[in-house]
Amino acid sequence: MDSILNFTNEELKIELIGKGYKKFRADQIYLEIYKRYVLSFEEMTEISKLDRKKLSDEFSFLLPNINEKLSEKETGTTKYSIKLLDDEVIETVLIFADKRRTQCLSSQVGCPLGCTFCATAGLDYKRSLSVSEYISQVLLICKDYGKRPTNLVFMGMGEPLLNLDNLIKAIQILIDPSGLDFGLRKITVSTCGLLPELENLLIAFPNIGIAVSLNSTFNDKRNHMMPINKKYSVEDIFNFLIGKKKLFKRRPTIEYVLIKDINDSTTEAGNLLRLTGKIRCKINLIPFNPFPGTKYKRATEKKISIFKNILMTGKNAVTFRESAGTDIFAACGQLARLKK
Ligand code: SF4
Predict the structure, then answer these.
(1) In CA terms, which of 9, 74, 148, 208 is 20 to 30 Å from 302?
(2) How far are the Cα atoms of 209, 214, 248, 308 from residue 238, in angstroms, in the given order?
(3) Shortest CA distance to 228 belongs to which of 264, 286, 236?
């Protein structure tokens, strides 16, 4: 049975009319789910009993459960552990900064790409998420918090572009004006650089935000830190960003996690300055967030400052982002069902 969360409003209209429902039912269901966060047919009391029963027989509306919720005192950042219907567990994080409430969404149970600085890579990879699992992550947080997030980032567990078809469908539903109505400018997808899939995503959504996780300008080092570099090297990434610049309606972000004595040298900073000097982009420096079992350490404040100052001599904006949620293992690279 198809999940009711797999449909855009237009698709649902066609589906429901085909099944003999009144034309306005799709709008009514969309309003209940995506504006009022009513998450079962039984609770949709404005719909006749007969139709509610018919809907339950014809569509699935099973949702994962919030297993656990942990909040960081200082920042309010909240990590939700979500148990999927097959008992696999993923995490999603709600981050508060300025007036934004940003939800970081997971794409896979575990991740097969094995980046050495990422806690998720240490989990057994199981599978990619379905469209309804993407949508459920957002709806569960809307219901729990009482308001929808203002921004969405696909930067949680897993590589979103390994799940491209479901990602594209989920974004179509998330931006549906009759539903959650996210603007594409409020959505960012982060990738370690799967270039053909990135091209397809940009063709589908030219205004979406893109973040490319780089982390070293040397192929031998990046091969080790991010094995996907053997397929898509540093040069491939920058050739893509230069050659396909017309596809980018917004400046992409280059993400760089600063790890002590690994990628925090002035040579790396100089290389990064030279490479990013060929494109219009934003450079986001992130301190490494340690997790149990890692051999890496966060770069020192002095090294971070020197690295940043070198990049600031270039034309592109540079930000240094202290990750929220380190107290509850909810920060960048820490999502692996860890507890303190
Ligand atoms: S950084 Fe991203 S792509 Fe790399 S292992 Fe972690 S989740 Fe996967």
Answers:
(1) 74
(2) 17, 10, 13, 20
(3) 236
Contact 126, 133 (CB under 8 A): no
| β-strands 78-83, 65-71 pairing | antiparallel
**pLDDT tens series, the chain, 340 aa:** 899 999 999 999 999 999 999 989 999 999 999 999 999 999 999 999 999 999 999 999 999 999 999 999 888 999 999 999 999 999 999 999 888 999 999 999 999 999 999 999 999 999 999 999 999 999 999 999 999 999 999 999 999 999 999 999 999 999 999 999 999 999 999 999 999 999 999 999 999 999 999 999 999 999 999 999 999 999 999 999 999 999 999 999 999 999 999 999 999 999 999 999 999 999 999 999 888 889 999 999 999 999 999 999 999 999 997 777 777 676 667 777 666 5
Q: In angstroms, rounded to a whole number, what is the distance separating the alpha carbons of residues 27 and 12?
A: 9
Whole-number Å distance, alpha carbon 174 to ligand 1 midpoint, is 23
Mutate which of 106, 109, 115, 335 for ligand 1? The one with the most ligand atoms within 8 Å of its CB, which is: 115
Instruction: Name the pTM for this structure.
Output: 0.95
- Point out the residues that are catalytic: 91, 332
Residue 111: CB within 6 Å of ligand 1?
Answer: yes
Q: CA-CA distance, 41 to 36, in Å (whole number)?
A: 13
Instruction: Give φ, ψ of 80 to 5 degrees.
Output: -105, 130
Q: Which domains does the chain have, with CATH numbers?
A: 4-58 (1.10.150.530), 65-328 (3.20.20.70)
Assigned token pair, 52: 């509610």
CA–centroid distance, residue 111 to ligand 1 (Å): 6
